[in-house]
């Protein structure tokens, strides 16, 4: 029984490699890439590997390694995978090269929307967008006669009804693992209340009315979430959804596909996507827009850069997208937005639109400060005003150390 | 042994330690008194990012480092700042004001002191537990039938040999959310339990994990020690009418004393740099440790910033702490050395 | 044992009960992840313990064991384990060349492990397939069980590469660590000078250092080493980042303090009259070491080597940061399944990988269990 299966699996994977080995040319320059490790990157790097002579490193430590590895001369990697958060150190250090010539040479299939321009120069090519938006159990909401919530107030009202009905363990799930995830929740909520992160002189501006409101909304969520929410990251929330333990969550669009995975999910077909809820009247959805894309190192020869970009274009072609349509909200031509993408599209096209996550040095520092100081507020050790003051103080200390503030 | 011979025996080992431990340590010491930062400039930049279907372009003033034309790298300045980084880590002004106002709990809201509190408590709570549990298992195994000993020793060693990352995850899964042990407890006590919802339960689990992980090490060492207990002494104690407990107290424990000190020493060092548990049990929101604090300073954020100076300062403070903790047990080693027979 | 040391029944019972309780606690988490690793993702993370054990979703997907399978499987398992404890030691002693008993055991254990895997995952399923089809109700699956995660991990994800890398790193760490450490341990044990003492104390302080500090310090040097070394070594200068041998050097250095402490106290228990006698016969210190000490030092070296093995095999911090994907060892590879962007399937595959990497540790302890205790008894731990 098992043997047969083993043989079958082997045969299928063999078939798979031959079927997909449809690279239009043979790559003869040895190339390496360093990217994050999620599904979309697996798809893209697999497509690049078909052309040969290519080693992909999908690494959970890429954030730590990338700036240093690209600064080495010659750079340890030719192709890098970045998001609008992680492109900052590479841009700042000048270790990624302008791509205008290469785009002119190989980028016929790219849409203008994909080209990330800094001061008019193309510095990166985006392949997908990601955002946190509302996922909800459409069956439960329909049973209880609740309309799809569009604001956080409606989310809480719906949560009250769900809690009363007692159909799930927890009405709301949230990616509030202390550190990066928790800070990201604040970064979503705060602009939703119209807050600006920084003053003109780079000092932090979160200790404001909007900041207090954002904190209050986050704390209110805790009434409906699992008490262990401070350890739950997006994989955990995704699992809670799959096991039917929660009814609503503001979760990453890249997680939508997992809801309909028959092997993992007990709620196949029951989860729908909608735009991220808005926090105040006339405001943008309380979330931020992210893109992921590729960059090419500066410290490599022009021939290598040429080969690397050509290879990357092969990885980002419509053939790859057609094969992996549900893995992400692709920006590449050929992508067919399915029902799972509805929420992300609605979020990105909302008016006013949510802001893109800012690619600045200051934002990185503030993100860390938020991640470290917010838990004390949510556990009740510290009140809101004191927490925001502590965030600003932590930011000031590290910003002075980083040379951003005098 | 002549110095020259001695030198050649230890040279390879010392060289490796100098290169890979002492050299980084010295650079850490220097960094803790320095701040290196890029030279920043403010420029107006237009950035275009994708929306869905159309792009949005924004023009804003950004603070970015100045790139040196000659080397192609960011210009940096390095400045000696004395104890500035230590002050940033310790935040003594807040400590004094908290002490002054009598509001002592506030001290524990400062990261360093919060981490120190947990690290010390973790070390001191688990130490007697590890020694005690290890000794109990050793005595029980020594007491068991010969045929059983092999398998029992094997099972007992499992928690110690298993990869720590995996060990802590295996326990985390048993308790997180409706993990099966939490679910069982809930059914038994008929109430909702969230083991990772509050600080004290997480701390308890961390103590449990550490004892589970290290007690086998103590056990196997004590068990080895028990094999060399002097039977004559034991028998003369019986003749003197010592009961079971007295024999344990006056014969076996003194015999094992060097081993207990050995275990204590190793355990102090390993516990003081507790780290795996914080990551494994994701306890950052509630409890943090000194090594985690250093690690957190060193972990770059999305924009690539890391607080190297503060990390260096906190690492040096951790080291001072461990040296203080080690002085007590090491006094004996010093006495042995002075009166040494070698 | 004289009558006075005989124990009352109550004490025996209490001691036995405590031991049973401890064994349960010690083995349960590990046994549990082993159970999780053979279930479909839905079952593995189910809230009900019963569902995790029986695996209804796994069974529904057509993967399961019948009553017959379980009964037969247990019988085979029993004999396999019994054989390992009764016949295997004899075979190993018979076939391994004199003086290489340790090597013989390693080979024996590896062959045994391989046979075990072949029988359980190759031969038995075929036999079961035939038996189940003729056994009627006894042949219908009652227990959900699937090896798909193991197949995925070792096949599709090419985990064997990580396994090989781990073996290279671990073997390197153990060999270098022991070679360097025995020399230093012997030197330190036979020198009563203050310098020796302070070396030991400094080594102890080194051992107490938080590793994250050291490791983060290495990264820029490792990545830029080609550029830094170019003035000295020219074009031969290597990039240390991603090189297994550089990792071996780092792990050996980190492990040196513990190794030299262990070995020093072990050598101290070898009477110094032994090598002094050899010295009187005209041997140099090195010759005395080689001729007199080396033959009697193995129990201590094996015990210390085992600790080096655990360090090299289990390390996460150093290997995760300083190795690239091509040379990644097993532990960071598994941790890679748990990063921010994983799925439940990834997690169960990680569990399967985690169980797989525990297996060599099992074998190792089985083989060396007696040596650990006797090595420690012989005095490697006199403080």
Question: What this model shows, in words?
Answer:
- The complex is a heterotrimer of chains A (406), B (342) and C (383).
- By secondary structure, chain A is of the alpha/beta class.
- Chain A folds into 2 domains: 15-130 and 289-342, D-Maltodextrin-Binding Protein, domain 2 (3-Layer(aba) Sandwich), CATH 3.40.190.10; 131-288 and 348-402, 3-Layer(aba) Sandwich (D-Maltodextrin-Binding Protein, domain 2).
- Chain A has 15 helices and 10 strands.
- In chain A, strands 1, 2, 3, 4, 5, 6, 7, 8, 9 and 10 form a 10-stranded mixed beta sheet that branches.
- In chain A, strand 1 (31-35), helix 2 (39-49) and strand 2 form a beta-alpha-beta unit.
- In chain A, helix 8 (180-192) crosses helix 9.
- The termini of chain A are far apart.
- The model of chain A is unreliable at 1-20 (pLDDT under 50).
- Chain B has 13 helices and 4 strands.
- Chain C has 383 residues and is mostly helical.
- Chain C has 2 domains: 43-146, no CATH class; 154-380, MetI-like fold (Orthogonal Bundle), CATH 1.10.3720.10.
- Helices cover 78% and strands 2% of the residues of chain C.
- Chain C is built from 18 helices and 2 strands.
- Chain C has helices at residues 9-36, 41-44, 49-54, 56-60, 67-86, 88-95, 101-135, 148-156, 159-190, 194-208, 211-233, 244-268, 272-280, 285-296, 298-314, 317-322, 330-335, 344-380, and strands at 64-66, 141-144.
- A two-stranded antiparallel sheet of chain C has the order 1-2.
- In chain C, helix 9 (159-190) packs across helix 15 (298-314) and helix 15 packs antiparallel against helix 18 (344-380).
- The mean pLDDT of chain C is 82.
- Chains A and C meet through helix 1, strand 2, helix 3 and helix 10 of A and helix 7, helix 8, helix 11 and helix 18 of C.
Which CATH architecture of the largest domain in chain C would you pick?
Answer: Orthogonal Bundle
What shape does the CA trace of chain C take? globular
The run of helices and strands of chain A is HEHEHEHHEEHHEHHHEEEHHEHHH
Number of strands of chain C: 2
Question: What do the pLDDT scores of chain C average to?
Answer: 82
Main sheet makeup of chain C: 2 strands, antiparallel
The secondary-structure element order of chain C is HHHHEHHHEHHHHHHHHHHH
The total domain count of chain A is 2
Range of strand content of chain A: 15-25%
The radius of gyration computed from the alpha-carbon positions of chain A, rounded to a whole number of angstroms, is 22 Å
Structural class of chain A: alpha/beta
* Count of extended strands of chain A: 10
Unreliable parts of chain A: 1-20
The unreliable regions of chain C are none
CATH homolog superfamily of the largest domain in chain A: Periplasmic binding protein-like II
Task: Quote the average pLDDT of chain A.
Answer: 88
The strands making up the biggest β-sheet of chain C line up spatially as 1-2
Give me the CATH fold name of the largest domain in chain A: D-Maltodextrin-Binding Protein, domain 2
Alpha-beta classification of chain C: mainly alpha
Give the biggest sheet of chain A: 10 strands, mixed
Greatest contact between two chains: B-C, 96 and 96 residues
